[in-house]
Amino acid sequence: MIQASHPKSVDITAQQMIFKAELDKVETVWDRHAAMQPQCGFGETGLCCRVCWKGPCRIDPLGNGPKVGICGATADVIVARNLLRSFCVGASAHTEHARHIAHTLYELSQNNAPAYSIKDEAKLIDVAKRLKISTEDKEILDIAKEVAEVSMADFGKHHGEFAWLNAVLNPLRKEKLASLGILPHNLDSVVVNGLSRTHVGSESDPMNLLLAAARLAAADVSVMAMGTELSDVLFGTPMPSLTTANLSVLKKDAVNIALHGHNPLLCEIVCDVAATMQEEAKKLGAKEGINIVGVCCTGNEMMMRHGVPLAANYLSQELTMITGAVEAMVVDTQCIMPAVVETASHYHTQVISTMDDNKIFGATHVSFHPESAVEGAKQIVRLALEAYKRRNPDKVDIPNHVQQAMGGFSYEAITAVLKKLDNENPIKPLIDQIAGGNIQGVVLFGGCSNTKVVHDFNYVTMSRELIKRNVLVLATGCAAGALAKSGMQTSQATLDYAGDGLKAVLAALGDAAGTAGPLPPVLNMGSCVDNTRAVRLANDIAMTLGVDLDMLPVCVSAPELMSEKAQIIGTWAAVIGLPVHIGVVPHVTGSSLVTKFLTQDMEEVLGGKFIVELDPIEAANKLYGEIQKRRQKLGI
Ligand code: SF4
Ligand code: SF4
């Protein structure tokens, strides 16, 4: 198995801060991972059940211990039930995210959210049309109101069309899911239904539990599209722009504010407000004013829309503070380690939580609401200014390896470039290059970072291996962060790593886009909620060819996956017909039925499946093999 150059991270700025953490005697996620070893084998295999208080029960897969729980639940039932429960949590996180955005759009349409505006009217009209809302002779705020109402109705709808599902799934896939009886009818009740099935004494048919998981996944892809597309309406649809990434983006002579989490409702306004308070920072001696940087998917949101530098992805979040130069770590929701408060206590950093339903114990809480967003943002920036006065210069050590990165490749940005090659039929040049072999296929990297894998290593290794073989790489979430920090989102990466065919295509696209060189071989499509941008592109290709997604040479990889959100994203990718690689062992191996379904049988039923492979080179080989199989099926 190929080895990484460092035992914890291949991000050189992270390596430097891991070393500083040791000197500063600050514990990091890697120390806690080491302290947790050995991890529990029952949990690792999914064989532990805590559903009722007769438990916990655990199944002994190898020895002479119990083969069923106290109630008689088998290993298959326990594993399938645990999996469905995890997916319900992942889908709930996406649902709450989209609900906030849709609710804000509604409040805006009622003039109750003065800090927000419709930044992309064309996108609003496009969304309205796809939701089958007539836009003729209507004022823009009236269209916004209808779009918000139709979206919010999708959460609890019991009759009629599931509007976002219709906008996201192509007709062939909808037919397929309907024929299997797993077409969801709304967002909220599929989660409630999933949870209710896992109550003690409820469903004990593992296959039916897995089908419920597939139905939930189809609802999840729909709600994620809602979150992304309504965010574009409110904050602008991303277009390519150059920025920088890794911990070097922090500045010694600035008040550094790290925005972390997922929801653009907060970070957009903090950016706007900080721009108006630069002079206050300079008066305190911060010659470069206020420097906003991103962490995790809030970082991706800001990088995509405004070119804000990205400091860290999930695993390196604590390391931002170990530079000793972060005045405020402002968090909203999801993927925020509770440990950030302890890390901050070693420095002057103020951790500020902002959402009333996502408080962080030990953090200062500033209650953030769309109706009073500007006031909330001002309070946050003032806390950062105060913290700057407490900064200890002796503790400051910022890495100096600035890495350029190009972000902003939304569906609209990619089609705008393709339109320059064929205005009438923009998807055709892409199809021609795939058919001709200059692009062998496409791999979408998504997902998190995970202490079970050397930080960023799988992303960098796999993407280079695939690009060399003329596979175009798309990326979202912490995958996009890893590939931004490692230089894979630059023209130079195309020159250094792409195969000849891909290099020629990216050079032509770079010319069309007017960039200084070829487009990067990794196109950053945004945060983890933004994966549906890639689905829209794939559907365009499939529908032009008259086939479903299960025929396309397109794969998904989550080689450092961790969160429940990422688990259900991988699942919907398989449910819509794509092979999905994961680089960590999922907690299902205690059930041969569940394991076999996910890695084999699912392909026959739905066209997609999971491929578990821990070695990144071998994983790239397997995905390339899947791409070739699909090219053969298409006859290209
Ligand atoms: S539901 Fe059954 S297997 Fe689970 S904890 Fe209760 S008794 Fe044990
Ligand atoms: S990709 Fe995973 S770790 Fe990163 S922000 Fe999204 S869910 Fe969190």
TrEMBL record:
Cofactor(s) listed in the protein's UniProt record: [4Fe-4S] cluster
Biological classification of the source: Bacteria, Pseudomonadati, Campylobacterota, Epsilonproteobacteria, Campylobacterales
UniProt keyword Metal-binding, yes or no: yes
Cited InterPro entries: CO_DH_a-bundle, CODH, HCP/CODH, Prismane-like_a/b-sand, Prismane-like_sf
Any matching Pfam family: Prismane
Keyword tags: 4Fe-4S, Iron, Iron-sulfur, Metal-binding, Nickel, Oxidoreductase
E.C. no: 1.2.7.4
An example molecular function term from Gene Ontology annotations: anaerobic carbon-monoxide dehydrogenase activity
Catalytic activity: CO + 2 oxidized [2Fe-2S]-[ferredoxin] + H2O = 2 reduced [2Fe-2S]-[ferredoxin] + CO2 + 2 H(+)
UniProt keyword annotation of Manganese present: no
Name recorded for this polypeptide: Carbon monoxide dehydrogenase
Native source species: Sulfurospirillum tamanense
